[in-house]
Design a protein that fits this description.
It is a single chain. With 565 residues, the protein is α/β, with parallel strands linked by helices. Helix content is 41%, strand content 16%. The chain contains 23 helices and 20 strands. The strands form 4 sheets. It has a 6-stranded parallel beta sheet with strand order 3-2-4-5-7-6, with helices on both faces. The chain has a 6-stranded parallel beta sheet with strand order 11-10-9-12-13-14. Helix 1 crosses helix 2, helix 3 runs parallel beside helix 4 and helix 10 packs parallel to helix 12. It is globular and about 70 Å long. The termini are far apart.
């Protein structure tokens, strides 16, 4: 096919099923966006800055389980996007990130905006390259798409010189067929895992985000039921997706954040099955440094070989597709477990379910005790959200000191696919992520719970929601401070923090007027202080057909601690 470089890119992406290109253009991207004027197979989604561009693509790719495609401006645009690229790297989001490069004929002169973007992007991508020859472009696109989508998935980067985008050549634009990545784990490893777990007196399961992303939740539920084992999710600092139903009787909430607390929480168990999870990726150093008790035997199951035995040795490492492998593990457990072991598992499961029920009852009583306080407490706010969200809702959380996994702890999330939390912690991600999720799932309600500080890193995304009438609902959990930092300083025992004194952590004098800001970007907005009004407005918005923002004032003052358990 005879076409330009830009035309080749658009043709191959379209043939691969790509529907959107998310971007913010500059001079070096003009040949590509000019080609899109007459080629309407892919819709260009414009954002006003690179943080929302990348976050929208990230949310879209995670929800659709398909390739997200991004086009950034040269060097400075890539620089603006790097925080969101780090998030995608930590999440393993399949993104094809492209940026225009200066004309190859100018390269030796070190022109304005030119730089070695390949080296900049390489640490946070699976593959990074600059295409120097038009005949290599089809191979580069094929390689980029396959690399991004092959387990472990992740972002890739292509630098495209602007003259190459305009150059015309006869090119082979055929695509390779999609890979079937459901690779069965070795049967011997599965048999060893079944034997170890069947013989354990008190096993537990630690579940990570890749269980959801591997479409293996139902299979893990069957294994948990078979073992009568409590299921603990990743701690809040790495808890990106839901790998187990929060309303299941065996769901035992999340692991604590800090090493000593993790050791205490896990000490009772003699074996753990770790599924689709980084074991462990800690946040702040604490003594003892090793969070996993030494007596625990570990079965670690993942599609990402790098995670197996990376930080802690495992007694059995199982490498392969989670959905296929967990289904086979359940069958092996059924045939391996003796009648006594089966009875013991049933008894364990019943005891865990009763304990979980008591924990949830205590939390409901705590909700009741706080309901009259104004401004609302985080728990009052979250319990209000919990009573109105529909079963098929998608929730994006970037307000950790407010949300504190309350929706899971209250059993309010009725689906596992629709939860999106931070894994990289570059701020500004949540607002754009919600827009991308809504684009991927136009028939599902999407709710973004955002801290006021985090929202300001990507607030320009509201304009994109307004321009394309993307009906996500954005709620600002407004305590007028960087609450996560205050909680962290208190946890670390820092002297000024212990006396309630902080520098650079309060967002007041002046307090941000999110209602005026949202309206200036084309989004309907209101400030809401009462739970009942919030409930009514949320129900209306989640059933609506346009974006809305609600600014909700919450209790001020430093959070005492972050709770996940």
């Amino acid at each position: 096919m005879k076409t330009s470089g830009a035309g080749a890119l658009l043709h191959m992406l379209s043939e691969a099923g790509v529907r959107y290109l998310f971007g913010n253009p500059g001079t070096t991207e003009l040949p590509l966006v000019d080609a899109m004027v007459d080629d309407r197979r892919i819709e260009y989604i414009l954002a006003l800055q690179e943080v929302p561009v990348m976050a929208i693509a990230d949310g879209y790719a995670q929800a659709s389980r398909s390739l997200g495609v991004v086009n950034l401006h040269i060097s400075c645009g890539l620089g603006n996007a790097m925080g969101m690229l780090y998030n995608a790297h930590r999440e393993g989001t399949p993104l094809l990130v492209t940026a225009g490069q200066q004309d190859r004929r100018l390269a030796f002169e070190e022109p304005i905006l030119g730089s070695d973007m390949v080296r900049v992007a390489r640490p946070w991508t699976k593959w990074s390259a600059e295409v120097q020859c038009i005949q290599d472009l089809p191979s580069a696109i094929r390689r980029a798409m396959q690399t991004a989508l092959a387990p472990p998935t992740g972002p890739v980067f292509l630098s495209l010189p602007m003259d190459l985008q305009s150059e015309v050549a006869e090119l082979d634009l055929s695509l390779s067929p999609p890979l079937n990545t459901r690779v069965r784990p070795p049967i011997e490893a599965l048999k060893q895992a079944a034997q170890l777990l069947a013989g354990a007196k008190n096993p537990a399961i630690l579940v990570g985000s890749r269980t959801q992303e591997g479409d293996a939740v139902a299979e893990l539920v069957a294994v948990a039921d078979r073992l009568g084992a409590p299921v603990l999710s990743e701690s809040g600092t790495t808890h990106g997706r839901l790998g187990f139903p929060p309303d299941h009787p065996l769901y035992s909430l999340g692991m604590p954040l800090w090493s000593p607390d993790v050791r205490e929480r896990l000490h009772e168990f003699d074996a753990i099955l770790v599924v689709g999870m980084d074991l462990l990726r800690q946040y702040v150093y604490h003594e003892p440094a090793r969070a996993l008790p030494e007596h625990i035997r570990v079965v670690h199951f993942d599609a990402d070989q790098y995670q197996l035995g990376k930080n802690y040795p495992c007694d059995v490492g199982v490498l392969g597709d989670l959905k296929v492998g967990l289904a086979e593990l359940d069958g092996l457990l059924q045939s391996t477990m003796s009648p006594e072991e089966t009875a013991r598992a049933k008894s364990r499961g019943e005891a865990r379910a009763a304990a979980h029920h008591k924990i949830r009852d205590a939390l409901r009583q705590e909700v009741e005790s706080q309901k009259s306080a104004r401004p609302m407490s985080p728990l009052t706010f979250m319990s209000t959200v919990a009573r109105v969200i529909p079963d098929n809702v998608a929730v994006i959380e970037e307000a950790v000191t407010t949300t504190s996994t309350y929706l899971e702890r209250l059993g309010a999330l009725k689906n596992t696919s629709g939860y999106f939390g931070h894994r990289g912690w570059a701020l500004g991600w949540g607002l754009g992520c919600a827009i991308g999720v809504q684009l991927a799932w136009p028939d599902r309600p999407v709710l973004a719970l955002l801290g006021e500080g985090a929202a300001m890193y990507g607030i320009q995304g509201l304009w994109t929601a307004a321009r394309y009438r993307i009906p996500a609902t954005f709620v600002i959990c407004n305590n007028s401070q960087y609450g996560i930092l205050k909680a962290g300083a208190l946890q670390m025992g820092l002297p000024a923090a212990r006396s309630g004194r902080f520098v650079g952590m309060d967002l007041n004098e002046p307090e941000i007027d999110f209602v005026a800001l949202a309206k200036s970007l084309g989004v309907e907005a209101a400030r809401i202080s009462e739970p009942d009004e919030l409930a009514e407005r949320l129900k209306e918005s989640l059933a609506g057909d346009k974006p809305r923002l609600f600014d909700v004032p919450l209790q001020r003052g430093a959070p005492v601690a972050l709770k996940y358990t």
